[in-house]
């Protein structure tokens, strides 16, 4: 076995060492493409080793090149471009839904894929800068792994924050499909987890070292990775074992997935039908099994009701007839602010619909008895999305892009308005952090720091992206957010994937893509506040400083 590994690594190292020019950059791009398959829904984790170990060997050659800086930059840039394009190619599908003819489809498809390539090319600049800087500190010893890991991690942190940020498919996200592997995110957060994954994936590159014309092979790096993975798994198994799934008492959830096609979501003539698609899945048999003291929360997906709850009393009356007193509806909606008739504002919102403003339970029961049949449902709480998706909910340089046709992506042919910021909603028996779609991808920005909720609810509409990998990756983001915060995440997604995720990232219930239905479940109880929830990215920065310290100390001793 050792001989086979030695021969395989030697041939691979020799192949990479002989690459030059566009062959080098093509291989770098290929390594990035392969690495992307470690993400959802594939989770082919060995691809991380192939990709990052290949990147180390490419950098070994880049720093020896006559044009060291240029080659170092473009090695990282091409790797990242391949990784990012394969990770987000499905964004182009959102351009297709307004095509009214074959010509429209061809034009929008071209615009979509070119736009995704442009986005990937821009984000890849962060990683090109990382390998450019890493090349200045590169040495032919084990410390180059730390140099690459720290540089790559800084690039990930940068692209997660600069220009509102886009932390989609961070390297550590590859562990989210197996909660046993991802539990460290509760301590070091997503960026810390990514740093660990990058370093571990790059270490096998040390198995082959060049000494003149000879290549020396060692199994020690592979053994180090194996031991590290055993420790990660042991921690995950232990944390999950001592924290079994627990549910809050007297709370039931009904998560609705109406499976409305995106073209219908955009058609005003279909708005009543879209509303009814969610309505028909609400209540039903679950109502007959409710105990008198049980509270039912029904959750509808993003934009499930346009603005019916604001302007259409029939919608509220329908809910009043179908749902029991102890049912509260949480629904995505388009909210229209008509306070200024000449400048209406549109918000991507979440409404809480109840019979009465949520109050103390004893007082509520008394009021219900007094009201008897005269009760009426009303909006008792709302949340407006504050982190809008660029080119999906607002268009920078809107005049220019409307001329190019990108305005077809924007709901109502206008940009949505931003909400005030993260919030929590008091639902009487529990407190929830409302999250709408795109906001799920931003760690540490889901609720006010001083107002920890008991769970998180996400309403989303991934129908834009069809049966691509996008919805699976979005779900993986939600699983990691649960682990980081120690809170359950409940997702209602228009076409899927709707799910109930416990505070440790375990997927308790889910509905697959393109399936109509509803999930009935209890509400997982919150875990103890995690270190990441308390300290944010501070542990990650400490890990970075520790690795940088190891690098400096080792090199100082070697030079001394």
Roughly how many Å is the radius of gyration?
A: 26 Å
What's the structural domain tally?
2
User: Would you identify the regions where 5 or more consecutive residues have pLDDT less than 50?
Assistant: 357-364, 366-374
State the end-to-end distance: 39 Å
User: How confident overall, as mean pLDDT?
Assistant: 87
Question: What is the molecular shape?
Answer: globular
Main-sheet strand order equals 7-6-5-4-3-14
Helix content: 40-55%
- Decide which structural class fits the backbone: alpha/beta
User: How much strand content do the residues show?
Assistant: 15-25%
Strand count = 14
Largest pleated sheet: 6 strands, mixed
Number of H/I helices: 19
Question: What does this protein structure show overall?
Answer:
- This protein is an alpha/beta fold and 560 residues long.
- The chain folds into two domains: 2-242 and 537-559, no CATH class; 247-386 and 421-526, Carbon-nitrogen hydrolase (Nitrilase/N-carbamoyl-D-aminoacid amidohydrolase, 4-Layer Sandwich).
- The chain contains 19 helices and 14 strands.
- The chain has helices at 2-17, 21-36, 46-62, 68-88, 102-137, 143-159, 179-182, 185-202, 220-241, 262-265, 271-279, 285-288, 308-311, 313-322, 361-371, 398-404, 470-485, 531-535, 538-559, and strands at residues 208-211, 214-217, 247-257, 295-299, 327-337, 345-354, 378-384, 425-426, 431-436, 455-460, 488-493, 498-501, 507-511, 517-524.
- A six-stranded mixed beta sheet has the order 7-6-5-4-3-14. It has a six-stranded mixed beta sheet with strand order 8-9-10-11-12-13, covered by helices on one side.
- α2 packs antiparallel against α3.
- Mean pLDDT is 87; it is low at 357-364 and 366-374.
